[in-house]
Amino acid sequence: MKTNNLGYPRIGSNRELKKANELYWAGKITTEALLKTGEKIRLENWKLQAAIGIDFIPSNDFSFYDQVLDLSLTVGAIPERYHEFAETNSFLDLYFAMARGAQKNDQDVVAMEMTKWFDTNYHYIVPEFTKNQKFYLFSEKVVDEFKEAKTIGITSKPVLIGPVSYLLLGKEKEADFHRIDLLDKLLPVYFEIITKLQCEGASEIQFDEPFLALNLTDLERAAIVKTYNQIHKQFPTLKIQLANYFDCFGNNIETALSLPVDTFHLDLVRCPLQLDDILESNLLAPNTKISLGVVDGRNIWKNDFKKSLQLIQKAIDALGTDRVLIGTSCSLIHSPCDLDLETNEENLSTEVKQWLAFAKQKIEEVVVLRNLATNEITEYDQAQFEANTVANEKRKTATIIHNDAVKNRVASIEENDSKRNNPFAVRSIQQAKSLQLPLFPTTTIGSFPQTPEVRSWRAKFKKGDLSTKEYDALLKKETEETIRFQEQSGIDVLVHGEFERNDMVEYFGEQLAGFAFTKNGWVQSYGSRCVKPPVIYGDVSRPSPMTVKWAEYAQSLTPKWVKGMLTGPVTILQWSFVRDDQPRSTTCTQIALAIRDEVVDLEKAGIKIIQIDEPAIREGLPLQKEEWANYLDWAIKAFRISASGVADDTQIHTHMCYSEFNDIIQNIADMDADVITIECSRSQMELLDAFADFKYPNEIGPGVYDIHSPRVPSNDEMVNLLEKAASVIPIKQLWVNPDCGLKTRHWDETKKALIEMVKAAQKMRVAALEVV
Q1: What is the CATH number of the domain that holds 743?
Q2: Which of the residues 152, 284, 365, 491 has an alpha carbon 20 to 30 A from that of 669?
Q3: Known catalytic residues?
Q4: Considering the domain boundaries, does residue 64 fall inside one?
């Protein structure tokens, strides 16, 4: 019985990749130094997995930015706007320009669109396709990394996103064709890659086709069948691991099991029942293997060996040990690197830590499970089994998990708790009188640049090198400077800048009961952006106000309105590692009640505009559409609970980014936020079409510049985007704002961009008055 891993974290145990990328972008290290950092991380990852005992060790799971972008470069899917840039710049600079945009040497190119990877908080760069799209082998990264692993004696398992999933991940940039129609042009490049890999000694390749967990059309299913039949015909000796994850095969099960592949990988964490479906279907070919994804690649809870062994034994009884692999449910890029680095009990108590496993520990669990299932048990394996049993039993009865007061409050929620006093049509009149804002009111999404100085203050404060009084004085100074800049630049609704916050979820988790924290539990969100999700281990409540102090202080500095800034319950849920011993809906409702208490306290403190960010609403949708209604019911209700405790003249905002809204626009409207701000610049306002077609009744702020790119857009660019917005949305409903928070940007580019944004809004006001 073999052990199988689908992918390993690429950021490095101490975020070496993040640091190297950012130094390279700043011009502080050479290309060679960046490439050396990547090589070091890859070699360490491969050696670690080999030492622990993983048989199928992945390669090509490393990326300097994003694996989908890597594949776009591999197959030559480079949009035309980058062609001139590519002629005069290095491969690496072209790569980063596609991811982040670039302004250098009189060249100005905008970044490609970015969106969420299925229902995770990982963002990928969206491929762009045209009707006459050409594909060719532009980068041999997958071959190079396979060869690199061989230099240390490891014959790795190359990982490729499958051709059909790659096409479905992209977007058509022209009308009148479907991107699946490009399959015949794409497959020859895959054949070339496979040929090169086989020449180097690769015998087994992992093809990720996660779209097999979605509701596919007949056309898309036919494309899957065509793809793997052609690969098998062309390469009859190639062993293919076909990996599906994040859900069951669902209605695609017959299509999947008909494919001529060597191994099917199943996510048995998200969908344990599919093992019975497959074993009882009689559709599995006689020699085909099954890779059992029993170790959770997306959460940090320790595996329950007893439960996993039951599933493994079921597969062994049906197929025999030689047709069963033990593995992770999905790639471990969604997990932190190593629990052994958590040595500070003030961050993470021993009691909670005993229930956890990070990427390194998860591959150890895979190997121990294989040994336990095959009776190749060492003393170490037996000790691990006993420790695992004890830890899981203790978790069931731990007193720190349960709070009867919280459970009773959730049980006593009434229908009116999720409703504002009056509908938006009534509220908007009262808000207009109270707030007195102009047409095209300008604001930002919340955070302002956190400079190295600000981050150093926080670090010194946590170490005790700064007193609370000294730390607060520094933050007050930074906050006042930010308020003054916003006043001077003419922004209408200000924010305090969030300099006291480390992360939009972690900051709140640190002040809520039921949360634990790590010091090194980083996971990649996109590019060099890493987040450190809190661990929700118990019932959630708010012991005391969390943001009122800083909102009050900022409002005292200015006669203009200052927004209170909160993270919504669904996003706190989605962007945390969530307890798995009760329904997610219950945990989300607990968080909603805590946020509601904060909203009410902000209103009492005189804050009349309160933003409750929910960028993760769309991300949380189950992959199978049949399950959407249940999720949306409790998710939308949770937001409404958090927002509905205030008077009609208090304006509630929400923010969402990098999401497709067409399928859930009614649910977005059901949230009943007075104002929604959304990412729109990378898509050139395409995302507004859903709101326009729906005749979205509330106010909306489509982002007019991309904060995930270092380039500063021109005034004309922003005016052009606002004109597009005004052509589909009534101008009385429109706000003007960036795509997202400004925390990761530099002050120089931020100031330039916001000044131009205000000028763009002012131009639109003048034009609107001239029309009147």
Answers
A1: 3.20.20.210
A2: 491
A3: 708
A4: yes
Residues near 698 by beta carbon (within 8 Å), at least 6 away in sequence: 424, 428, 669, 672, 673, 674, 675, 676, 733
As given in the structure block, the two tokens for residue 605 are 């403190």
| Two structure tokens written together for 697 | 């009744």
Give 326-374 pLDDT, tens digit per residue: 999 999 999 999 999 999 888 899 999 999 999 999 999 999 999 999 9
Q: Are residues 345 and 429 in the same domain?
A: no
Establish if 132 belongs to a structural domain. no
- Is 702 contained in some domain? yes
Residues 164 and 226 in one domain: yes
Note the pTM of the prediction, 2 decimals: 0.91
The number of distinct structural domains making up the chain is: 2
Which tens digit of pLDDT belongs to each residue from 587-628? 999 999 999 999 999 999 999 999 999 989 988 999 999 999
Exposed / middle / buried, residue 32 (Cβ in 10 Å: 0-12, 13-18, 19+): exposed
State the DSSP string of 97-129.
HHHH-EEETTEEEPPPPEEE-TTSS-EEEPPEE
Which of 380, 397, 414 is the last residue in one of the domains? 397
Structure tokens at 677: 């701000």
User: Quick check: 34 and 40 in contact, CB under 8 A?
Assistant: no
Q: Would you call 609 helix, strand, or coil by DSSP?
A: strand
Same domain for 350 and 236: yes
Q: Which of 356, 270, 297 is nearest to 8 (CA)?
A: 297
One domain for residues 259 and 358: yes
For residue 293, list its beta bridge partners: 267, 327
pLDDT in tens, 147-202: 999 999 999 999 999 999 999 999 999 989 999 999 999 999 999 999 999 999 99
Q: pLDDT-based confidence at 704, cuts 50/70/90?
A: confident
Spatial separation of the C-alpha atoms in residues 644 and 670, rounded to whole Å: 13
* Residue 659: inside a domain: yes
What are the residue ranges of helices labelled H in 619-682? Answer: 628-643, 665-670
**Could you report the per-residue pLDDT of 718-750, keeping only the tens digit for each?**
898 889 888 888 999 999 998 888 888 899 999
Domain of 643 in residue numbering reads as 424-771
